[in-house]
């Protein structure tokens, strides 16, 4: 399994509630992409954390990374909802070993 992990902060004029609404939408729509096993999101526990939010998308295997990146659902969500809000972000894919 591959975990596509993004940690991020939102633009200054966005609210926490707007961010959670965006993440809920992401959870719904990104889960529809073939090879996506699940989507979760969270908020930092420490108030002084460098990044306040995270979203994790679980992929079946490595082949889904490229398919996901170019999938129209992902492209629309990222361009129209995620990137305009998540202005400070780091994205990394991890292979999960259990």
From TrEMBL:
It comes from the Bacteria. Residues 2-94 form the Stress-response A/B barrel domain. Coiled coil: none annotated. InterPro entries: Dabb, Dimeric_a/b-barrel, HS1/DABB1-like. Signal peptide: none annotated. PANTHER family: PTHR33178, STRESS-RESPONSE A_B BARREL DOMAIN-CONTAINING PROTEIN. Homodimer. This is Dabb family protein. It comes from Lederbergia graminis. The lineage of its organism: Bacteria, Bacillati, Bacillota, Bacilli, Bacillales.
